[in-house]
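stage 2 :: seqdesign
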């Protein structure tokens, strides 16, 4: 067995026995997040895949206190947990809300925006599998343009672009925002370490491959995640105080079709549609570069 890189903590907080699908990015992401945050952590999980992944009551694989809450209330419940800990004088406990894209981009956005505006002292993580996977693969506002879901079938695929959740949170001028990927664990760990060291609202957006929803092969999840970064579909960067942008990974780029072709949810796309996606990705990358250049 290969050794764990020294930059990834060896401690294991998350236990065995989770019930995620094979190749689930959300399970991998939680494991590495808890390696950094450690045992003095409280996790708030709204209705999402992780409500199931954690295991049936009274069992839990997370290894720290978990509060399961309503779909739309991850941020406000975490806010309440933080207030309760503060009232007890326990300032050294990490409070992490852990929600999917449905509970972040859509149903929970009101609660998230309010917590961000107040600069609540919580870490909010969105593991983004780009649809409502736990309830049948329905489209969310995180679903990419052109993607198949059960509510955007092949003859009528998603016709609107993915919501830019990072820009939405940056507009709140919170102290720390980052994008992360399970294919780059050292980068992910460094971002959780940085988030852990900062007070105030912190938001981490993790692309989370979902083999059933993406119609991909489970053992390809890491490869697909890496190609999302290399194709610049999902660049890895940080935003400080809402305006200081910094790229954290800049691998040799590959065409966007290298990423798309491994997922059945894009199999119906025409060459013209793929060209359009490439143009959109290039445009967003150029915008990101401009922001980085103007930050320093």
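stage 2 :: out
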């Amino acid at each position: 067995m290969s050794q764990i890189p020294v930059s990834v903590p060896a401690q294991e907080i998350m236990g065995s026995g989770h019930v995620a699908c094979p190749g689930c990015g959300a399970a991998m992401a939680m494991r590495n997040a808890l390696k950094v945050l450690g045992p003095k952590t409280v996790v708030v999980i709204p209705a999402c895949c992780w409500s199931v992944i954690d295991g049936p009551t009274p069992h839990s694989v997370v290894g720290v206190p978990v509060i399961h809450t309503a779909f739309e209330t991850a941020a406000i419940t975490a806010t309440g947990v933080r207030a309760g800990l503060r009232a007890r004088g326990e300032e050294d406990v990490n409070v992490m809300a852990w929600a999917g894209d449905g509970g972040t981009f859509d149903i929970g956005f009101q609660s998230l925006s309010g917590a961000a505006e107040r600069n609540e002292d919580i870490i909010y993580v969105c593991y983004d599998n780009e649809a409502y996977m736990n309830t049948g693969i329905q489209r969310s506002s995180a679903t990419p343009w052109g993607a198949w879901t059960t509510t955007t079938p092949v003859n009528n695929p998603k016709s609107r672009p993915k919501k830019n959740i990072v820009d939405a949170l940056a507009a709140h001028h919170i102290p720390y925002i980052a994008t992360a990927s399970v294919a780059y664990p050292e980068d992910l760990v460094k971002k959780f370490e940085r988030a852990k060291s900062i007070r105030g609202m912190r938001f981490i957006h993790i692309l989370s491959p979902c083999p059933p929803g993406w119609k991909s092969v489970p053992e390809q999840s890491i490869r697909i995640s890496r190609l999302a970064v290399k194709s610049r579909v999902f660049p890895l960067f940080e935003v400080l105080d809402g305006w200081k942008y910094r790229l954290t990974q800049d691998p040799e780029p590959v065409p966007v079709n290298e990423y798309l072709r491994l997922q059945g949810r894009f199999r119906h796309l025409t060459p013209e549609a793929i060209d359009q996606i490439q143009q959109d990705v290039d445009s967003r990358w150029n915008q990101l570069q401009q922001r980085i250049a103007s930050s320093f």
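stage 3 :: structure notes
- The chain has a mean pLDDT of 96.
- Strands lie at 41-45, 66-68, 94-100, 123-128, 176-181, 202-207, 237-240, 244-247.
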